[in-house]
Amino acid sequence: MMRLALREAERAAEKGEVPIGAVVVRGEELLVSAHNERETTGDPTAHAELLAIRRAAHKLGGWRLTGCTLYVTLEPCPMCAGALYAARIDRLVYAAPDPKAGAAGTLYDLPTDTRLNHTYPYTSGVLQTESATLLRDFFRQRRIK
Question: Is 14 annotated in the active site?
Answer without folding.
Answer: no
